[in-house]
Design goal:
single chain, about 350 residues, alpha+beta, Hypothetical Oxidoreductase Yiak, Chain: A, domain 1, seven-stranded mixed beta sheet, three-stranded antiparallel beta sheet, 12 strands, globular, binds NADPH dihydro-nicotinamide-adenine-dinucleotide phosphate, binds pyrrole-2-carboxylate
Length: about 350
């Protein structure tokens, strides 16, 4: 037996749906979650592919998430869509709100979508890439749980707070980046722990505030922001914009709500969509051509554009027709299906 399991993308999707529905999640939520896990697995984003099933199932078993929540969309203001996820997972709420966000961005040039009251576990690039597929510039951000100490401090009060951006390109996939504002995503630290690998210095500190490269000590201690005070400031900005501004929880409040269950964080999410056709004015084509020149000048000198690794991985997966995941992970995920339903 090899040490990896090979699955087609359809099998990834079906497997993820099966694991979640066997743990009580309704089919519409399971399908929305599974689609994003499949796309992450396709693009070799290991920490947010099938691995996320562990967090999802823990959340389901903690009994916190509303397994059949029907998100409610509010046309809140000319440039604002609000979706109440009703304590369900975020992705079905996103599906519900996205069409109105796109419509409003096209009508006004810019619009925001505030998803409220959702359990959130996923990568953000699939969301901003969806906006770029509509020809829109997309930004997305959210808090998480208070795992990260601010630069200069030792007490975790910030989330790993991801930030994603996508810029549509005429020929080819959008320019997109998506990163945690911590030095490393928590999911990635967990994967280091699973694989027995040390962390790069600067990822976190132990419970006594000492620097360490031991993943378990960092998980029990505090993670650190990327880029010192700069990452810390961005992380605080995300707490504010995707927390109090949209009437939702900060990472610290989400952690307090969790009460040690280690479920997915409960909070809100902010997406912003911008229509370049409205902003660039009458000579949209020439301005967008200048944007292309800038992106080409980056890639043209051998610097890699964010998203490039992902799109190369996507092409590789689509050509191979399957993905490989560590067999140990596959077996751990299979074990999440209650025996009677296996
Ligand atoms: P990475 O550090 O792996 O990547 C961050 C971004 O930088 C990606 O767009 C990546 O592009 C790009 N990149 C990486 N290396 C280079 C390089 N050498 N040159 C140019 N660009 C580069 O991401 P993180 O580990 O910080 O985050 C992983 C995922 O975790 C994200 O999708 C994020 O949304 C998710 N996350 C979700 C949270 C949540 O609350 N839901 C919380 C925290 C993280 P490429 O992909 O092509 O490598
Ligand atoms: O990897 O930091 C993380 C994360 C938090 C929530 C989902 N992923």
């Amino acid at each position: 037996m090899t040490d990896t399991a090979s699955l087609t993308l359809d099998q990834v999707f079906d497997f993820a749906v099966r694991v979640m529905t066997a743990n009580g999640l309704s089919e519409p939520h399971a399908r929305a979650n599974a689609a994003v896990m499949r796309d992450c697995q396709r693009d070799e984003c290991q920490s947010h592919g099938l691995y996320r099933l562990i967090m999802c199932v823990r959340t389901l078993r903690a009994g916190m998430v509303v397994t059949d929540a029907t998100p409610e969309v509010f046309d809140h203001a000319p440039g604002v869509v609000r979706v109440d996820a009703k304590r369900g997972f975020s992705l079905l709420a996103l599906d519900a709100g996205l069409p109105l966000l796109v419509e409003k961005a096209r009508a006004s040039g810019i619009a925001a979508l505030a998803i409220q009251n959702c359990f959130h576990f996923s990568a953000l690039w699939p969301e901003v890439e969806r906006l770029a597929e509509h020809g829109l510039v997309g930004l997305a951000m959210n808090p998480s749980h208070a795992w990260v100490a601010p630069a200069g401090g030792t007490t975790p009060i910030l989330g790993t707070n991801p930030f994603a951006f996508a810029w549509p390109r005429k020929d080819g996939p959008p320019f997109a980046f998506d990163f945690a504002t911590s030095a490393m995503a928590r999911g990635d630290i967990e994967l280091h722990r699973r694989e027995g690998k040390p962390l790069p210095p600067g990822t976190g500190i132990d419970a006594r505030g000492n620097p360490t490269t031991d993943p378990l000590a960092v998980l029990d201690g505090a993670m650190l922001p990327f880029g010192g005070h700069k990452g810390s400031a961005l992380s605080l900005m995300i707490e504010l914009l995707a927390g109090p501004l949209i009437g939702d929880l900060t990472s610290l409040e989400s952690m307090q709500y969790d009460e040690g269950a280690e479920a997915a964080p409960l909070h809100g999410q902010l997406l912003i969509a911008i229509d370049p056709a409205r902003f660039t004015g009458g000579d949209s084509a020439s301005h967008l051509a200048r944007a292309e020149a800038l992106l080409d000048a980056t890639a043209g000198q051998g610097a890699r554009l964010p998203g490039q690794r992902r799109h190369e991985a996507r092409a590789r997966t689509l050509a191979a027709g399957h993905v490989s995941i560590p067999r140990k992970l596959y077996e751990d995920l299979l074990a999440l299906i209650p025996e009677a339903k296996r």
